[in-house]
Amino acid sequence: MTDVLYTGPIPAERGGELAMGGGRSETSALSGTGGERDMTTAQNSQRPNACCFCWCCCCSCSCLTIRNEEERCRRQKRKGLSQGTKMETIPNCEPCTKPSVEEIRLWSQSFDKLMRNPAGRNVFREFLRTEYSEENMLFWLACEDLKQEMNKSAVEEKARSIYEDYISILSPKEVSLDARVREVINRKMQDPTPHTFEDAQLQIYTLMHRDSYPRFLSSNSYKSLIHGGSRTSSES
């Protein structure tokens, strides 16, 4: 059978499709191909760089940057300390007598000897203030005061005050504690005792010993105290 070629008029709808460029299916296919290319380009432009593929790597990089910046700030602060620091210029945060040169020298033998001496704590606290970490000493002193308290209502009041001042994440004087110690504190705060912050106090004491104490011994403030005391002794 011979195929008959239709030569009659083209329907209006079909004519419109042909005039538009070959029908809806072809147009859709082209649009889809272009859309895929656009989506691929957009995804590539939004894709993070190679460093961001590894979250741990990026975190390490950021931490190193922060630590370097902190160390730079600390060096600037240490350089800014007065070269002529004298015992008379240290605020007496705790009542104490003026230490002798021998006592000042003993502070360099161990952190315990420094912390057992009221004048030593005053000097060290002033140094911590220059490093913006005075809250560590304030927290330690508050814990020492709490341990001397025997009245239950006073213990509860002081414990709540210590928590709000140094443990709460909302406090500007919050000290740095790990999650385990914070969990212990939260549990003990249900029934506070004079030893509620014992673990936290030890952790902050260790932090000051390992982090701040070595810098204190190398600081101009401590060296000037020794030299100033030595000159006073020789003159007398």
UniProtKB/TrEMBL annotation:
Residues annotated as domain RGS: 110-226
Membrane topology annotation: Lipid-anchor
GO biological process: G protein-coupled receptor signaling pathway; negative regulation of signal transduction
Secretion signal, residue range per the UniProt entry: none
SMART domains, A to Z: RGS
Region Disordered, residue ranges: 1-40
Keywords assigned: Cytoplasm, Glycoprotein, Lipoprotein, Membrane, Nucleus, Palmitate, Signal transduction inhibitor, Ubl conjugation
GO cellular component, one term: membrane
The protein's role, per its UniProt record: Inhibits signal transduction by increasing the GTPase activity of G protein alpha subunits thereby driving them into their inactive GDP-bound form. Binds selectively to G(z)-alpha and G(alpha)-i2 subunits, accelerates their GTPase activity and regulates their signaling activities. The G(z)-alpha activity is inhibited by the phosphorylation and palmitoylation of the G-protein. Negatively regulates mu-opioid receptor-mediated activation of the G-proteins.
Name listed for the protein in its UniProt record: Regulator of G-protein signaling 20
Species whose genome carries this gene: Solea senegalensis
